[in-house]
Structure formats: structure tokens, C-alpha cells
Design goal:
Number of strands: 9
CATH superfamily of the domain at 1-68 and 143-153 and 172-213: P-loop containing nucleotide triphosphate hydrolases
Distance between the termini: 5 Å
Domain ABC transporter: 8-213
Protein name: ATP-binding cassette domain-containing protein
Helix content: 25-40%
GO molecular function: ATP binding; ATP hydrolysis activity
Strand order of the largest sheet: 5-6-7-3-8-9
Number of helices: 6
Order of helices and strands: EEEHEEHHHEHEEEH
Keywords: ATP-binding, Nucleotide-binding
Pfam families: ABC_tran (PF00005)
Radius of gyration: 17 Å
Low-confidence stretches: 209-213
Oligomer: single chain
Bound molecules: adenosine-5'-triphosphate
């Protein structure tokens, strides 16, 4: 458990579409140096919640307080077919206002796709596009990282690299939230929640969480 206060403080968030409630009072604290998972069935409201946490969608009621630089990897990729990997890095460099791409190139190496730097997105495989999506969320060294099904399309080796990367980010103080419909990553997490009937239930304290107490 982190001694530092939360960088994401979510109080009683509610959201429905038309007359159908999806989120019915979500509470969540995310602290620096925590790796937290949220699982839930298809349609449980995970992406809706993540979009609200990222500030991309308004809640009907409740509050979300964020502190620090935000990095977000949404479920759909945010890429343009005609532009190369390098061009995407340059656009996001300008958007983030960062002076160099050192961290971005480091991430390309870590995810093993530096060779694709000058390829257009249209020529990349689905898994490689997802790697780029992830790099774009990480290249400005965020303090709060929100990831929606971040390893979709990854092969096994890349999947393991993803978790090494997530653990390294946690260890350098980043607060990492991973949303997925599968719970088999539980042992890698400090806390695992289940989104069920519109609320977050803490399912168990994982091995990593117990070690961190
Ligand atoms: N823009 C929208 N308009 C109406 N209903 C929506 C909209 N977006 C999502 N929903 C509905 O809200 C519910 C929650 O959707 P959401 O995408 O948040 O679930 P999810 O847990 O992320 O699902 P999945 O695991 O399939 O990605 C679903 O029933 C979905 O059909």
C-alpha cells in the first residue's frame, strides 16, 4: 500500500446510456507505485469507466480528481494509416510538448519494433499497431497510466514484455490501471477489482499486493 496520496480519486461515479444505468456508484483510489487491474464481463462498463477517468466522457454524477501527467491507451487505436511510426512519434511529441524522443525510442526497443520506425501504419500488423498505441501513451513518462485491453493482438513474448514494462513503470512511481475482460493476470497486480452490476468490488489481495504491504 502506498503512503503517498492518490493521483486518481474517484467518488461515486454514475453513468447511464439513455435509461440504462451502466455505472452505479464507482469508488476508486489509485496511488503512485500501484499496479491495479479492473476486470469485468463484456459490456460491464469497463471502457465507459476508463473514458470517464481519462476525461474523454462525462459522468452523469460523481467526481474524478486527477493529479500528474496522464497517459491513456484506449481500446481502439488512435493511429492514422498514411503516417509512419516516426511521424506519429513526432505528432505526439508536439502534442505533449516534450523536447526529445529518447524515451519513445527506448520503448520501441523494449517492445522490439524499432525496425518499423519508417513504415506507414497501413503496413503494420495488428499487434504492431497496438505496440505503437502503447508507446504513444507512454512516451511522455506519465504519472497516471490508464490502459484499456493494452495487450490485444500481442504474441506471448510481447505480452510478457508488456507486463515487465508495466512492473517497471510501477516501480518508478507511476500509477498504472489496466482494464481487461480476463483475470488471469491477477498475480501481477497489487489490487484486482471486478466491475460488476455497475460497482467495483475488490476481488482479492494478490501475491504482489501482499508483498507490498
Ligand atoms: N455510446 C453508447 N451509447 C449507448 N450505449 C453504450 C454506448 N457505449 C457503451 N454502451 C453500452 O454500455 C455498456 C457498457 O459498455 P462498455 O463498452 O463500457 O463495456 P466494456 O466492459 O468495456 O465491454 P467490452 O469488454 O466488451 O469491451 C454496454 O451495454 C454497451 O452496449
Amino acid at each position: 500500500m502506498s503512503a503517498v496520496g492518490p493521483v486518481l480519486d474517484v467518488r461515486d461515479v454514475r453513468k447511464g446510456y439513455r435509461d440504462r444505468p451502466v455505472l452505479r456508484g464507482v469508488f476508486l483510489d489509485l496511488c503512485p507505485g500501484q499496479l491495479v487491474g479492473i476486470v469485468g464481463e463484456n459490456g460491464a462498463g469497463k471502457s465507459t469507466l476508463l473514458r470517464i477517468l481519462a476525461g474523454d466522457l462525462a459522468a452523469d454524477s460523481g467526481t474524478v480528481e486527477r493529479a500528474g501527467r496522464l497517459g491513456c491507451c484506449p481500446q481502439g487505436t488512435v493511429l492514422h494509416q498514411a503516417f509512419t511510426v516516426e511521424q506519429h512519434l513526432q505528432f505526439f511529441q508536439a502534442a505533449y510538448g516534450i523536447s526529445h524522443l529518447t524515451r519513445a525510442y527506448e520503448l520501441l526497443e523494449e517492445l522490439n519494433f524499432s525496425d518499423y520506425r519508417h513504415e506507414p501504419v497501413a503496413a503494420l500488423s495488428g499487434g504492431t499497431r497496438q505496440k505503437l498505441n502503447l508507446v504513444l501513451a507512454l512516451m511522455h513518462d506519465p504519472q497516471v497510466l490508464l490502459l484499456d485491453e493494452p495487450y490485444q493482438g500481442f504474441d506471448w513474448e510481447t505480452y510478457l514484455r508488456f507486463w515487465d514494462l508495466a512492473a517497471a513503470l510501477r516501480d518508478r512511481g507511476c500509477a498504472v490501471l489496466v482494464v481487461s475482460h480476463l483475470a488471469y493476470d491477477a498475480s501481477r497486480l497489487d489490487i484486482l477489482y471486478r466491475l460488476q452490476a455497475g460497482v467495483l468490488l475488490q476481488t482479492e489481495q494478490t501475491e504482489a499486493g501482499r508483498a507490498a504491504v
